[in-house]
Amino acid sequence: MGMSYKKAWNMINNLNSQWNEPMVITQSCGEGGGGSSLTKAALELITHHTAMRKRLSPFLAMEKEKLIHLYNVFYKMIKWIYLLSLYFTRYNDKLKNLLR
Q1: Three-state DSSP class for 33?
Q2: 46: which strand partners?
Q3: How far is it, in rounded angstroms, from Cα 24 to Cα 29?
Q4: Which helix (H) or strand (E) holds 28?
Q5: Cα 28 from chain centroid (whole Å)
Q6: What is the reported pLDDT for 11?
Q7: How many helices and strands in the chain, by DSSP H and E?
Q8: Region of poorest pLDDT, from 9-13, 57-61, 89-93
Q9: Residue 14: other Cβ atoms inside 10 A
Q10: pLDDT band at 98, cuts 50/70/90?
Q11: At residue 75, what are phi and psi to the nearest 5 degrees?
Q12: Other beta carbons less than 10 A from residue 23's beta carbon
């Protein structure tokens, strides 16, 4: 996972402290040398999260396309404003030179 043992345990402890019941149960020693497992509440949370992502994916994809479109429109507007400002700056300088 590319993460230190300490960081992983800090994340697990942080997760457990944010809920009314633990999401991960640890067992030290024993036949297999100990370990950890997800609780029923954690499995339900994962199931709920997966279902929610599945429901929201089409909506988020549409919103992403809208944002891309708005970005492209905005970018074109800024480009035109910039080009117009260059044009009027040059035109304004020519007028100033004529009026001198």
Answers
A1: coil
A2: none
A3: 16
A4: strand 24-28
A5: 36
A6: 92
A7: 2, 2
A8: 89-93
A9: 9
A10: low
A11: -60, -45
A12: 18
